[in-house]
Design brief:
mainly beta, single chain, disordered N terminus
């Protein structure tokens, strides 16, 4: 019910006569009731009821109906307003009012908030002090047409880092004299901007347009202001930008915001030469045994280094990869005679490796300490190097070294360490599958000698070199914690698989379509050179399928210092952390336009619940995989380019280590114009789940047999889908049991935001 209120004193209510008595009018007249709405400054509605006096007399009261559902604090002037019944009000004059026939009543009601709907037929009745009806009838209230600002912003060329014309449009919501329009510009926009029919000034991220002369505008009129010559930032997204129009006194005539999508397509990459294969050296085969034939040979568990043998012995090789006919030097620090044994990693009856080569009683020295230093462009490089170590042994990679991933085990009987090596198949044979080793990322995290990219000597390197041992994974880098599982799984299934490294992608990337139909990227392949990114992009454009069974891929930009690829630089000086990222070059260089999803955060591990997409074929929906959303995760960012047909085929939620916030994990797929299929797995966990041995600082370092089996089924589904059916995983998808348990190793995953 509307509260009874005392009307405030105001203007005379009877607009047709300014006195309380009137001269006689016509003998009779029609009531002619009209009801007119207007909007008050506080947003409420004022209704003015007008009616013609049809009988002379002295006014006792006037009763008026209002739309059902009206609310508000309702007042009037020269009288009081009270409620007769719901939706019916009575106005009583505060002094004697005498009216004559033909005079015109005008009763304003202030403060109404009308319901939606209308028009409404409303009644009006004026009664005299004798009880006679002085005027009576109905009128129609048509609600005022209201306008929203409806701000719309478009760009003639909506590509970050390019020049465009921005068009700002808005509807006038209140009539007035327009003096200025203020428009928010996209963050980072610049340029000598201009407009038309007025002057344009910029300040603090806004452009203000002032007309040449004041312009009267009606409610409902549409404003449109173009801004020419805007140079957009290299960063875009779906932006929300404000726009407002004002009078010279500051009264708002329109105010609101609109969205503008500035999305960068994938950056163009330089062409990568497609070089031929070198002749096969004398004594080396022109074809290698199949994976099945190789893994039928006797395996051994002797490759494992127990944690009791972790010590000061350390070693590295002078190459990260080699091919038959190459010689690789080994440098060891021990001081004791050592055995040097090369193990090819694979399945081998579940033992995980086969001994390929051995040399016992190798003499060693205690090598000098690594050195840290160097400068470039006046900046400290803080590169830790053991390049000055003396050579311990030269190893010829001959026909016994079947292409694959190798761990060279060096042991003095008390302590031991690995030195990793990848042996390529350079015969020109095209394989179904190529698995890449992320040695550049291993090196970034390598703390040997005290400095990694992330920490040490206040703080972290700007140049890193492979001329030192790996401190992680007992000398294997991130191979054992994150990558061995993919090798073990692929070879246990007898897939036609071959291998190379990050360095090989940079050096031989143009050959990728001639080496394999599908490439697997490992769990943590974060550091990419321009040559690597260009080569993989070109391979996708030429039909090579990609399964990125990891996350945070191609996130940081490195530059090899020379053709030997023994060291690489990373720019940590231009803009600190940001300048190390590919995305620092602009949104076009983000990972999502490249592979389908974008890195969001690191985390120790959260549960994935399986769904019903093809990725989970053969796994009951709702199966829990504790700890599978782990290490680092990717998600689809709405502010970045989405490949046509991009699909999220699996999703989960992770709790970010640094922020403590829940964030989505999205496994994505798309098919490139070439027909190549690309999957982005978006978690580190695929490889380590396959051997039930994940980093020791994860929440689930030893996944259960059920989890291991489920992930094996997922990887089989991914392999068949991404290869377009060219790779058929054996129908018996049971995961081969690993018969050796490599000691768990801490893997640093907590030093990214």
């Amino acid at each position: 019910m509307i509260r009874r209120l005392i009307a405030s004193a105001g203007v005379v209510l009877l607009l047709s006569a300014m006195m309380t008595t009137f001269a006689a009018g016509p003998a009779s007249a029609a009531a002619n009731v009209t009801i007119t709405p207007s909007v008050a400054s506080n947003g409420t509605t004022t209704l003015v009821y007008r009616a013609t006096v049809t009988r002379a007399g002295t006014v006792r009261d006037i009763v008026m109906s209002i739309p059902s559902g009206s609310t508000g604090r309702i007042t009037s002037v020269n009288g009081t307003v009270s409620t007769v019944s719901p939706g019916v009000l009575r106005w009583r004059p505060s002094k004697t009012v005498a009216v004559g026939v033909g005079a015109r009543f005008a009763i304003p009601l202030y403060g109404l908030r009308l319901p939606n709907g209308g028009p409404w037929t409303l009644s009006f009745k004026a009664t005299g002090t004798t009880g006679a009806i002085l005027s009576s009838g109905t009128g129609t209230l048509t609600p005022l047409r209201t306008y929203s600002a409806g701000v719309a912003i478009t760009a003639s060329n909506p590509i970050p880092a390019q020049t465009t014309t921005l068009n700002y449009s808005a509807t006038v919501t209140r009539a007035g004299v327009l003096a200025a329009v203020r428009m928010q510009l996209p963050a980072g926009a610049r340029g000598a901007v201009t407009s038309v029919n007025g002057t344009l000034t910029t300040s603090s991220g806004y452009a203000t347009w002032t007309p040449r002369a004041a312009i009267s505008v009606a409610a409902g009129a549409r404003l449109r202001i173009p801004i020419y010559g805007v140079v957009l930032s290299k960063y875009g997204g779906i932006l929300t930008l404000a726009m407002s129009a004002r009078t010279s006194t500051g009264t708002l005539l329109s105010s609101g915001s609109g969205t503008l999508a500035l999305i960068a397509p994938p950056a163009a990459m330089p062409p990568v030469p497609v070089a031929g294969f070198a002749p096969v050296p004398a004594g080396c085969p022109t074809a290698w045994p199949s994976t099945t034939a190789e893994n039928a040979k006797p395996g051994t568990g002797g490759w494992v280094i127990p944690t009791s043998m972790n010590g000061t012995l350390a070693a590295y090789l002078t190459e990260v990869s080699a091919t038959c006919g190459d010689t690789v030097d080994l440098k060891v620090t021990s001081g004791n005679p050592v055995s040097v044994v090369a193990y090819r990693m694979g399945y081998y009856q579940g033992l995980g490796a086969r001994e390929i080569w051995r040399q016992n009683g190798v003499q060693t020295v205690v090598q000098p300490a690594p050195v840290t230093g160097g400068t470039a462009n006046g900046n400290p490089l803080r590169m830790t190097s053991a390049a000055h170590w003396a050579k311990t042994l030269s190893i010829l990679v001959d026909s016994a070294w079947v292409p694959g991933t190798y761990l060279i085990k060096i042991s003095d009987g008390t302590s031991a360490s690995y030195a990793p090596l990848t042996v390529r198949d350079d015969t020109g044979t095209k394989h179904d599958l190529l698995i890449q080793q992320a040695n550049a990322t291993w090196e970034a995290y390598n703390k040997y000698g005290g400095v990694s990219f992330y920490s040490g000597v206040t703080t972290g390197s700007g140049r890193l070199t492979y001329n030192r041992p790996y401190a992680e994974g007992q000398g294997s880098g991130q191979y054992l914690p994150l990558e061995q599982g993919l090798v073990f799984w692929a070879e246990s299934k007898g897939l036609d698989v071959t291998y190379w490294t990050n360095n090989d992608l940079d050096e031989f990337g143009g050959q990728l379509p001639n080496r394999a139909g599908t490439i697997f990227l490992p769990g943590h392949d974060e550091y990419f050179s321009m040559g690597m990114r260009a080569a993989l992009s070109q391979a996708i454009n030429r039909g090579v399928n990609v399964a990125n069974l990891g996350a945070n891929t191609a996130y940081r930009l490195i530059r090899f210092t020379d053709g030997s690829r023994r060291a690489w630089d990373i720019d940590r000086y231009t803009d600190g952390y940001n300048s190390t990222l590919w995305r620092y070059l602009g949104d076009a260089y983000a990972s999502q336009p490249y592979l389908g999803a974008e890195y969001i955060c690191g985390l120790p591990g959260n549960t994935l619940i399986t769904g019903t997409s093809w990725v989970f074929n053969g796994i009951a929906p709702g199966t829990s995989l504790p700890g599978f959303v782990a290490g680092e995760i990717d998600r689809v960012d709405s502010n970045l380019y989405r490949r046509p047909g991009l699909t999220i085929v699996a999703s989960g939620t992770g709790i970010c280590r640094t922020s403590g916030q829940a964030r989505p994990m999205h496994t994505t797929t798309f098919t490139a114009a070439s027909g190549a299929r690309v999957l982005n797995g978006s978690t580190f966990a695929y490889g380590c789940f396959l051997v039930s041995r994940c980093p020791s600082n994860w929440t689930v370092p030893s996944p259960s047999a059920q989890s291991r089996q489920a992930v094996g089924t997922m990887v089989a589904n991914i392999t068949e889908w991404v290869s377009r059916g060219a790779i058929q995983v054996p129908s018996d998808t049971a995961i081969a049991a690993v018969r050796v348990a490599v000691p768990k190793h801490h893997l640093e995953t907590s030093n990214q935001p």
